[in-house]
Write a structure and sequence with these properties.
With 214 residues, this protein is α/β, with parallel strands linked by helices. The protein has eight helices and eight strands.
Length: 214
């Protein structure tokens, strides 16, 4: 299992220790949740903070834009050195165009879907994307309770990917912990985003390692 710990759950008063922990851990990515207070009912951090994070972080950046008009910020995300840029299906009027532009900028293109969005809405673009990020909580806040029906959604997405010949990986964000993570692995997830579970642990690096072992 790949992991992408979310910086959203770190101590914003002093991010460097959290980033250094990620650097020294076996995590595959650092997940950056960008919220605008419009698409989701919260505001997290913007590009000035992410530029500072990128200077310190040695892991590839996995940037998740929970914002309206995410296509406006493709070049800014690229300038961070991000490997993955994920946008929401619900926020993109012209999703195919946005995915093409992310690829043209040299990044992997991710598409995220909220809990009430069926995986079938991605059937016409599934072969074009590199990552599908399934939200297993409603986006906007960390520490929420996992939505159980997400497991069936992941199984349906796994079938869609396999049947289409897509190379997309399945990433899951929301309520990931020691109970839900094995279930997500069994359902077909390839990468887990974990915020509160990692950063509230006594030994965050070991917690990441436990997820990686699934």
């Amino acid at each position: 299992m790949k992991t992408s710990p979310s910086l959203l759950a770190a101590d914003f008063a002093d991010l460097r220790p959290a980033i250094e922990m990620i650097n020294s851990s076996c995590a595959d990515y650092l997940h950056l949740d960008v919220m605008d207070g419009v698409f989701v009912p919260n505001i997290s951090f913007g590009f000035p903070v992410m530029k500072s994070v990128a200077k310190v972080c040695r892991k590839p950046l996995d940037v998740h834009l929970m914002i309206v008009e995410p296509q406006r910020w493709i070049e800014n995300v690229k300038a961070l050195g991000a490997e993955i840029m994920t946008v929401h299906q619900e926020a993109c009027v012209h999703l195919d165009s946005c995915v093409s532009r992310i690829h043209a900028a040299g990044m992997k293109a991710g598409v995220s879907i909220c809990p009430a969005t069926p995986v079938e809405t991605l059937s016409d673009i599934i072969t074009e994307v590199d990552v599908v990020l399934v939200m297993s909580v409603n986006p906007g806040f960390g520490g929420q309770k996992f939505i159980p029906r997400s497991l069936d959604k992941i199984r349906r997405l796994r079938r869609l990917i396999d049947d289409s010949g897509s190379k997309a990986i399945i990433e899951v964000d929301g309520g990931v912990n020691n109970v839900t993570a094995p279930l997500l692995a069994q359902a077909g997830a390839d990468m887990l985003v974990a915020g509160s579970y990692v950063f509230s642990a006594n030994d965050p690096a070991s917690t990441i390692a436990s997820l990686e072992s699934l």
